[in-house]
Amino acid sequence: MELDDPLVALVLIDLKKSSLISSNIDMSLWDKHENFESLFSEHWMYSYEAYVNGEVSTSEKYINKSNFFKALETYSVRFYDSSLQIEIEPFESLEDEFNIKVAKAINEIKAKLKVIQEKGVNSEKIETIKELVEDLSFDENLTLGNVGYF
Fold it and tell me: Strands 147-148, 143-144: parallel, antiparallel or unpaired by DSSP?
């Protein structure tokens, strides 16, 4: 399957430069967009970015033929920046955060129950609720008791 998409091509170049994929990926599908005409087509981003990053297979200086794209290059305008990375939190830290929030909620419930009990509300019901709160536990599916969160 061929996917003639400029962003796919830019990501492939990035992955190759980072040695995350084989360097012998066939780029011929996108090589045909390394020319002046492609700067004014749906492949303009690939044509421009591949050129300014030195990733074109041609020696033609096609950017110089367009005052607009030459100005973008002169001012180092980039539309794809491989130095920007998204940080992904490991699942464990999300689980820890969840557990901390639930522990805080349980402590808040206990504190409110104590205030209610001090006001003389039916202490038998309060004790039952306290016992239920004390018995809360988590399983591997991040569920609290019988109440599912995810």
Answer: antiparallel
